[in-house]
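Homework-ish question, so no full write-ups if that breaks the rules, but can someone show me the predicted structure for this set?
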Amino acid sequence: MTTPHSSHWLQPAFDDPVLDAQVSFRAALGALAEPGLPRAMDRAHALGDLAPATYGLCLAFLDSDTPLWLAPRFDTPLIRANLAFHCGCPIVAEREIALFALLDEGELSDLSDFDNGSERYPDQSCTLLIQLDDLRAGIPLRWRGPGIKDVRGVNLPLPASFWQQRQARSAFPRGLDCFFAAAGEVIGLPRSTRVLIETEEAA
Amino acid sequence: MNETDPNIAARQRWMGVLARAGSALDPHEAALKDSAYQLIRSPEVGMTLVRGRMGGTGSAFNLGEMTVTRCVVRLADGRTGYSYLAGRDKRRAELAALADAHLQGSDQARWLDDLIEPLAREQREQRLNRAARTATTQVEFFTLVRGED
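A: Not a homework solution, just the prediction itself:
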């Protein structure tokens, strides 16, 4: 009975599983409906390297029907055990079959293998959950598109290679939807948003 | 680890005893809650699908859904205890999970003697009593050979 077991790593997730999951899911929907507007996502506790907002997204989105791809930084016994316990999601090694991917800023220069859906089922694309250190420390970006009245200024600190990758994987209605999470906040970036870096149109 | 692991068989047995214990857990509440613990999954009520088989070779069918309450606790030393109970009694689900956690520790023998064995004995007696009561109502049918074979 003393064999080390993954249950050793388990931690509590939401304090109020039903209400907190509903509030977090609603916040995530709101984040996609109004791209670029930070939303509070602070119902979960931090889990190892996962910020409260990132873990909250995981707890709200993932279940046994959503294969997850983990960036190496998040592929720890602690995170694996807790996601398996609280979400029950399969963790896959192949990016192609993942419906969700948990990324950090180091993984953003290559998004080529994630599924961006098909013409018939664009909704079956992979959703990227991207954890950043800060949501406001980058160069000014101007976002346009559905959910934004005219133009919205966003300062996400992202490398230029991310915008190139996003552009390369975008062929509306196919494309990748992203959530950016830091500390207790989340920003949504659906595939329909056009992002302008300064005056040049990037996506 | 597989299904024949004696540790797993022992744990299955005590989890089964705890699941059937019902109100018999209540007198042990103080002892079970004596040490510090944390709720990893606070007691929650849900449904589970019960499947059955008709006869030894029949294929599985869905018998129906039943209410279960489950709970996971962790003691201060990191041991986790799980419980699944029929019904919707959250307090007893927590007690059963605590008992499962204590039973995996160094005090296993004491907990087995104090908690599991008396409960198992009591449950066995209840089962035998019920079986004895039912046995008196048994009707044996005889069929006369009709000579068709």
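Now go work out the reasoning yourself. Hint: The two ends of chain B are 54 Å apart (CA to CA).
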